[in-house]
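Hi F.,

I've been meaning to write this up properly since the lab meeting, where we talked about keeping a consistent format for the predictions we share between groups. The idea is simple: the sequence comes first, exactly as it goes in, then the structure tokens exactly as they come out, then a line or two of notes. No screenshots and no reformatting. I'm using this chain as the first example so we have something concrete to point to.
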Amino acid sequence: MAGPNGASTHILGISAFYHDSGACMVRDGEIVAAAQEERFSRIKGDARFPAEAVRFCLERAGVSIDEVSAVGFYDKPLLKFERILETYLSVAPRGLRSFLKAGPLWIKEKLREALGYSGPLLFAEHHESHAASAFFPSPFQEAAILTMDGVGEWATASIGIGRGSELELIRELRWPDSLGLLYSAFTYYTGFKVNSGEYKVMGLAPYGEPKYVQTILDHLVDLKEDGSFKLDQTYFNYLSGLTMTNGAFDALFGGPPRRPESRITQREMDLARSVQDVCEEVMLRMARTAHELTGSSSLCLAGGVALNCVGNGRILREGPFDDVWIQPAAGDAGGALGVAQLIWHRRFSGSRSVNGRDAMRGGYLGPEFSEAEILEILESHGAKYERLSPEEKAKRVAGLLAEGNVVGWFNGRM
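Output, unedited:
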């Protein structure tokens, strides 16, 4: 769909201010660029306004900010602030510190000032952005959609259906009951950084035994057959404090949280295995419910919990779906892509081409550098390097891997 005077429609999507900030550019429905701010700032999970990612997306598309047809933000700050405020009021005065930390964030940030943009600025709900990022780039004409994360505005998980150029969310689980926050609580308790070290818990799980599964189900999680659940908040601290767990949680699992960077014991391995097993069971039940509600044979996944590849594997092997497609940027950064797609289909009534392949280009949507640029950087830093032919390179890398070395491989777009 062309814009005024036959020009292309460029839509800039942005996610920012919580964690994993990113930007995405969509031209006439095609994803032409997407990147996380951390790739430029080198700050892992960088949550700041993604100025460098935006700059890259504009340059890659060959447009200025004034030529952008619309800018989309991946969630609704006022709804999020409503949840933050209501949570504070429900636990006041205990929640004052967390309220002061989170509340002003959504008032002070001014997207227009940061962008220098005066055109249409649109907002989508957090889980709609996740759902759009999962379905619209997928190879399916129709699919069930399952999104699971910590929390957006109020939703912590949602089930939807996508058909052609439309999607609809039909059921949701709401704050403070959250699979993502349950997993993050154990991430914190086992001594890793929340919103960063969850993958370490997943990786630690195979070394442990599921000895705490029943404890989790008996005390922390009231799990229903359809995958919905209630968390007993007497064991958690994320409503009123700045940590995830409290003294009752410590007593339940035999001691205080592991001190970060201290030795990992069998206890942490068993805790990781236990919460991983519970997480997988919840994911499977939610997937089965999504199938029952939609009747679709295909499933699209997004949201931070969809980064749990072990759980995704069980859905594929044991779930009711013939095919599963997962948004590569399943976390919040992918919300930038989702809101841009939503705007294309809803505001501009854009078309969607489904050809049996995903529209993510394998996820290779970030910057790339030519050989000349790489050589210039190496020379400017006085770096030692060696140029190899493709055949020599393959043999050298194979030999290094066989010796147990770690190899960094840089090729093409990020």
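Notes:
Residues 87-92, 98-108 have pLDDT under 50 and may be disordered.
The two ends are 28 Å apart (CA to CA).

If this format works for you, I'll send the rest the same way.

G.
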